User: Fold this.
Amino acid sequence: MRLNRRQAISSAAALSASASIATQSLLAAETPDFKFKYVLASCMYGYNNVWEIVPEVARTGAAAIDLWPKIHGSQREQVDEIGVETFSNFIKRWQVELGCITQYKLGPFALEDEMRLARKLGCKLIVTGARGPRGLKGGELKSAVTEFIEKMKPHVALAEETGVTIAIENHDSNLMESVDSIKWFHELSQSNNLKIAFAPYHLPQDSMLLAQLIRDTGSSIAMFYAWQHGKGALDSLSSEDQHLQMPGRGELDFKPIVEALKEISYDGWTEIFMHPGKRGTPIQESIQGVTYEINRSRDYLESCLKATEKTSPKQLASGEGKPNMSDTNQEKQAIVRGDFNQLNPREAYVILNQGTEPPGPGGYTMTKDPGTYICRQCNAALYQSDDKFESHCGWPSFDDEIENAVTRRPDPDGLRVEIICSNCDGHLGHVFQGEGFTQKNTRHCVNSISMRFIKKGDDIPPMIVKIEK
Ligand SMILES: [Zn+2]
Assistant:
């Protein structure tokens, strides 16, 4: 038997898996709550503009975007057109991470430039396909996987240098097509920068088998596609049949898979995914439709995760890991999806209709306490008290904004520059340059009513990103 060693490894894994089930309730109290780290595949929106897709990241519960090139998406090419720096600033403003760049076209041996670009954009993962013949088994398969990993060595060396991980997707079209190929790859790959992008779509649609494969090879998985085969991704299928690839729509039971991911404390990305029959088109007609479809699958995955909690009551007792706001207060504001704060008529007059409240010492004009000024409508952090100064103009004045929080646009009066909240477009006031009040020579003249002041040390509420209805 050629597979003896692997079988031994896999039965050892099975043993430790059952042991871990037995001790699960004991461990649960100490184990941090498992959460999916979602990344949004840009190609789910076809060739739509990357400007329109980035705001959808938070709306799909994701923290990051995966840029896909043609033919599936065109957003990777769009970044070249708009410029790396502009793109980088844009995703920062939306608090979106570049989680992954997908690059099948370049293949595993031509990723040098892409790795350097990834490093520039703070992206730590590139997904591509393997090379090599299909249909191999046993020793032949092992030799071919060994050879492939050997060929990857110089590329992996650059990956290590640039801090990028190359993840190879298992795929029907090459060497990495089978359960065994994934097991060999896991066993033979020596580098943390060479991993697997795990695609159930290309594997037997058997949830217990897939769950076991995750337990056996999980530490090598850097990307999990929440994606099933359904009836395939053919153009000849009705759109309803194409959507059977989405979790919760097709027949594959994701519960055992989710349970396995939780059990190994999987900490890579999860990408809810499908291919539309006609590549390069959005999976639903409108941007909102695509987001809705993804959220439908996400709700299903979260319900699978919830179901695993029933087996470990202590975990429930220990409390659901609520985001700890005091951690995010300083660095990064949390984001929630939902409706904006309700505005009273006076607030709506200023914030929605570009009104101006009367000048005077009221509101926050004289406030000097340390803290943060957030947007009244969406809670986005706008200004720090350190940048506030006394201008005697009758409105709160700041000489700087929190990075990317405030957008400038020409005022309809043709003279002034209007400032609006970058997240919700709510009217804030105007910005003036060259008045010489402070060294920065800038005065944001802001309506008190457009803001809310949060004292230093108090929790800043999460920024609300609106769900389009
Ligand atoms: Zn706002």
